[in-house]
Design brief:
By secondary structure, this protein is α+β, with helices and mostly antiparallel strands. The protein has helices spanning 20-47, 57-68, 71-81, 85-110, 112-131, 142-162, 177-204, 208-214, 280-285, 317-322, 347-351, and strands spanning 265-270, 276-279, 289-296, 307-316, 332-337, 342-346, 357-362, 365-366, 376-378, 392-398, 421-426, 432-433, 436-445, 451-458, 464-465, 467-468, 478-486, 489-499, 522-527. It has 3 domains: 14-205, no CATH class; 236-410, Sulfite Oxidase, Chain A, domain 2; 421-527, Immunoglobulin-like (Sandwich). A hairpin with a 5-residue loop joins strand 14 (451-458) and strand 15 (464-465). Helix 1 packs across helix 4, helix 1 (20-47) runs parallel beside helix 7 (177-204) and helix 2 crosses helix 4. The structure holds the ligand Nc1nc2c(c(=O)[nH]1)N[C@H]1C(S)=C(S)[C@@H](COP(=O)(O)O)O[C@H]1N2 and molybdenum atom (MO). The ligand Nc1nc2c(c(=O)[nH]1)N[C@H]1C(S)=C(S)[C@@H](COP(=O)(O)O)O[C@H]1N2 binds at residues 247-252, 295, 297, 337, 339, 341, 371, 384-385, 388-391. Residues 255-403 form the Oxidoreductase molybdopterin-binding domain.
């Protein structure tokens, strides 16, 4: 080879692959078509009542994710995002989907089968999630299968349009950007319309709010009256009775179960001589009782806000079980909700008195959907995850030795009485106060046992008794106040409770796992 020899002129560079941005856009649109169509069809299944479990691919993947979230990550999410944890999760799923759809598009631009394979794989993941949802039926996967098929077709079609064509003479490669964008735009618009229609269908035809509006609550056979002296006249103290609109919400439901009163029924079975299935009409025709009960979440850190107090109207579980010939060997009731949550409650907590309820109303209103409409359990003295089953549809009388609830293999105790605790609401942490009389006030709770005393100490001095407001029973929290004569300087305020059995609140700090937090609430303030 000599230096003068030149290579033949290179042929005009011919592109045979789509431009990367066109490929990426193809992927994005194909992803949107998949999800939009699947969500629309899933909504149709849901509103027509044909769905067995959860046919929505996005919600199912999210639910499956929640179920598999390692405990510490779940605790972190609840701590960091609070009640927005669900929005954050759905947003993250959306983001991951967008990234994967773009990747599928770019891959398809180089090698079509790889891109198609990626879309297919995503579809299969969603199908797997849907099939493993509680009470899933084969029909539930149909929307996702059709959506995925449409997505595959769209990807192939758009990649084809984005690929330059070669004329017969082997040169003059070209593609029409305008045709491609038109096609991508049309498919994208169709996807958005489908997804939007699905959303509208879900929310407007969701007859559950109509059903709730139609409920006429019966008069309580055993009404409660809220005593006058439960509320202290102190600005900033937590209201004694919690408004359902601000009542804390904790559950794993990404989409709230939609159960009308006509659809609802409860099956009681297991270790009983007689099984029972009861519908809503029959339940509310029974003599219902009212109880004032403060609900508490095991995830409540010391000083936290995951508790609330309400009047619950319901039928005592004890009365329900009375005629069913419960096997003396049974020691637990496993309750299951429509969305597949399982909760284990010691049988004795349901039968030792008539305070454990199948509740239908909260503060005189039918249960809000997010608090368990149409029927939930409420049991005084036990954390919510072992007692307060929302959307409850099944009670199995069983034994702890034979059955396990949702949270038990996830790092929480099978049995969990509420650890009594107290909280300072006033003053707020780091408040700047004026020297002289200042109220230190808050709430304290020892459900099922009762609050005997609340005490306050300043700068780790001696414990001083606070004044307690009224309480109708041991099952509710109680407000307290201590008149503090504040001197200038920086101070640390702490409170503790002594229960009716004489036990003092545990001072040593402990996190929420496995059965609830301990420690003292404290506030640092400056007085001038
Ligand atoms: N179906 C169902 N019921 C449930 C839960 C749930 O995740 N799903 N969470 C429980 C927990 S952990 C608590 S603390 C209470 C909270 O009830 P609330 O949201 O009405 O305050 O509901 C309990 N019932
Ligand atoms: Mo909870």
């Amino acid at each position: 080879m000599t230096a003068t020899q030149t290579a033949p002129p290179a042929p005009a560079a011919e592109r045979t692959h789509p431009r990367w941005w066109a490929a990426a856009l193809s992927g994005l649109v194909a992803g949107a078509v998949t999800v939009g169509l699947a969500e629309l069809l899933a909504a149709v299944l849901t509103v027509t009542g044909l769905a067995g479990g959860q046919p929505s691919p996005v919600i199912s993947v999210g639910d499956a994710f929640v179920d598999r979230t390692p405990g510490p990550l779940k605790d972190f999410a609840v701590r960091t995002f609070g009640e927005n944890d669900k929005l954050v999760l759905l947003g993250s799923i959306g983001l991951v989907l967008v990234v994967l759809a773009l990747a599928a598009g770019i891959a398809a631009g180089r090698r079509l089968v790889v891109g198609l394979g990626l879309v297919l794989l995503l579809g299969l993941v969603a199908v797997g999630a849907i099939m493993t949802r509680p009470s899933a039926s084969p029909l539930d996967v149909v929307p996702t299968v059709i959506g995925t098929a449409a997505g595959l077709w769209t990807l192939r079609w758009l990649i084809e349009r984005a690929t330059p064509t070669t004329s017969d003479d082997g040169s003059a490669a070209g593609w029409s950007r305008r045709t491609f964008l038109g096609s991508a735009g049309a498919a994208g618009a169709a996807a958005v319309v489908a997804g939007g229609a699905g959303h509208v269908l879900e929310s407007s035809l969701g007859s559950v709010e109509d059903s709730r509006a139609k409920v006429r609550l019966p008069k309580a056979a055993e009404p409660v009256t809220v005593p006058k002296d439960v509320q202290l006249p102190i600005k900033g103290i937590t209201p004694w009775q919690t408004d359902p609109a601000t009542f804390y919400r904790v559950d794993t439901a990404l989409r709230l179960p939609q159960i009308t009163t006509e659809e609802w029924s409860l099956k009681v079975h297991g270790k009983v001589g007689k099984e029972l299935t009861i519908d809503y009409r029959t339940l509310v025709a029974k003599p219902l009782v009212e109880r004032l009960i403060t609900l508490t979440c095991v995830s409540n850190e010391v000083g936290g806000k995951l508790l609330g107090n309400a009047v619950w109207l319901g039928y005592p579980v004890k009365d329900l079980l009375a005629d069913l010939e419960v096997d003396p060997g049974a020691d637990m009731v496993l309750s299951t909700s429509q969305d597949g949550m399982t909760i284990s409650t010691p049988l004795e907590n349901l039968t030792k008195n008539r305070d454990a309820l199948l509740a239908v109303a909260m503060n005189g209103e039918p249960l809000p959907v997010q608090h368990g409409f149409p029927v939930r359990m409420v049991v005084p003295g036990l954390y919510g995850y072992v007692s307060a089953t929302k959307w409850v549809t099944d009670l199995k009388v069983t034994r702890f030795a034979d059955d396990e609830a949702y949270w038990t293999p996830r790092g929480y105790s099978a049995k969990a009485p509420i650890k009594f605790s107290s909280r300072i609401d006033v003053p707020k942490g780091f408040a700047q106060l004026k020297a002289g009389k200042n109220a230190i006030a808050g709430v304290a709770w020892a459900q099922a046992v009762g609050v005997a005393k609340v005490q306050v100490r300043v700068d780790r001095g001696s414990w001083q008794d606070a004044r307690l407001a009224g309480a109708p029973s041991k099952n509710t929290w109680v407000q307290w106040v201590y008149e503090w004569d504040a001197e200038p300087g920086s101070h640390t305020l702490e409170c503790r409770l002594v229960d009716a059995d004489g036990n003092e609140q545990v001072e040593s700090k402990h996190g929420i796992r496995p059965d609830g937090s301990t420690g003292l609430d404290s506030k640092n303030v400056t007085v001038s």
